[in-house]
Amino acid sequence: MNRKCQIRFSAVLVLIALIFAGAEALAQTTMYQAKVDNFLFLYDATSSMDEIYRAETTRRSVLAREAMAAVNKDIPPLPLQSGLFKIAPSLSIYQDMSAYDTNRFEFAIAQTPLPARHLGPQTSLEKGLEQLKPVLSRLEGTTALILFSDGGENKGGAPETVMKELYEQFDLCFHFVSYAHTPEEKESVGRMSGLENCSLVISGEDVQDPRLREEFVREIFYRVIRDSDGDGVPDYLDKCPDTPGDLVVDEDGCPIAKRMTLDVKFDFDKAVVKPKYHSELKKAADFLQDRPGITIVVEGHTDSIGTREYNLDLSRKRAESVKQYLVEEFGISESRISTEAYGESRPVADNKTDAGRQKNRRVEGVFPEVFLKK
Fold first, then answer.
1. Contact of 159 with 124, CB cutoff 8 Å
2. Which of 49, 160, 247, 373 could cysteine-pair with 61, CB 3.0–4.6 Å?
3. pLDDT value at position 8?
4. In whole angstroms, what is the distance from residue 359 CA to residue 348 CA?
């Protein structure tokens, strides 16, 4: 390979790397919130689905199975329960309701049969829909049912009548991938999809368009939630939107400061720091001396004996006592130490026991400029 080709080849590799890096960054800042808890694919295998679809040269049933596979790939890995059923001429299970897995669902789709010919004009969706009731009764939450059908050959029944019953009994919505071609078929799909405002309909042609199919899937299954700083807290809840991605954050998306539980215990109703805690406080002093630019907040706490007002004042005295010790014994500047008093409001142990109350008579050190890392 000559030098010019090497340069071009390297440039292509860099471009590919940038593309993948961008895609990875986008994935890290995008989350998906499920709109439903369960979904069912309902495959219509009546004989009319064996006919050629419009100007296509392919049978409707083949296109429907291809559409099921494509829709399946567009569903994000959400915590859903999923099932695949041949709905007509009668109900058959190709995957019973279970935790959604893209690959397992793809395998189930591949097992669905092509329609048998000459099933007759009395074949109906009604029977299969009626048989769905025991399946739906086992589900919790909201359910989406996606029917891949032409709406045809329903002279022997009224599927919309059963759908009305299902709407009344269960928290669900029917959606349609329609292969209707004749006026009668279109009218049938229209009656079924018009029962509730929640229903979406996409045609057999449009479902082949990746953009339109993705929109159809998104409207049914999920909301896109942005997380611009990649901290796991969506933007609309994030009170600290520019947090570096390597930091641990709280529920508001804000970095969590390093906290040092100082093993300095106090006698009951006392705020005096005993000399035996010198080595313990030296840990905090060393941490501060090694990082000249940071500060510490000394938090004081008490057990629950006494009034809230008294304990609040006692906790303040304990925090001030530790601050004074750090200043006098270790030479830490007063300007780098602030105090907070919490009284009995933040126990770490049960106040009903002597041992628990002893643990609650404590101080803690918080370093606001030092954050926990993942």
1. yes
2. 49
3. 40
4. 7
- The Cα–Cα gap between 121 and 157 comes to 11
Query: DSSP labels for 51-115?
Result: SB-TT-SSBHHHHHHHHHHHHHHHS---S-EEEEEEEESS-EEEEEEEE--HHHHHHHHHTPPPP
Angle subtended by helix axes 210-221 and 60-74, to nearest 10: 60
Query: What is the tens place of the pLDDT at every residue in 64-104?
Result: 999 999 999 999 999 999 999 998 777 899 999 999 999 99
What SS3 state is found at 225?
A: strand
Whether residue 137 contacts residue 120, with contact meaning beta carbons closer than 8 Å, is answered with no
**Amino acid at site 257:** A
Per-residue pLDDT tens for 225-247?
Answer: 888 888 888 888 889 988 888 89
Rounded CA-CA distance 219/175 in Å is 10
pTM beyond cutoff 0.85: no
Residue 111: CB atoms within 10 A of its CB come to 10
CA of 66: how far to CAs of 43, 219, 294, 360, in Å? 12, 20, 61, 64
Tokens 């050629």 correspond to 52
Plot region of 230 (φ>0 → left; ψ -120 to 50 → alpha; else → beta): left
Distance CA 173, CA 152 (A): 20
Instruction: Give the Cα separation of 15 and 163 in Å (integer).
Output: 52
Output 18-26 pairs: Cβ under 8 A, ≥24 positions apart. 25/230
C-alpha distances out from residue 169 to 127, 133, 147, Å: 17, 9, 19
- Determine the Cα–Cα distance for residues 30 and 37; give it in Å rounded to an integer: 20
- Supply 27's token pair: 């994935």
DSSP states along 270-315 = --PPPGGGHHHHHHHHHHHHH-TT--EEEEE---SSS-HHHHHHHH
User: pLDDT at residue 117 above 90?
Assistant: no
Nearest to 243 by CA among 257, 224, 264, 263: 257
Maximum average pLDDT range among 7-11, 54-58, 68-72: 68-72
Residues in Cβ contact with 8 at an 8 Å cutoff, skipping those fewer than 6 apart: none
For residue 193, CA distances in Å to 39, 148, 174, 220 come to 17, 12, 7, 14
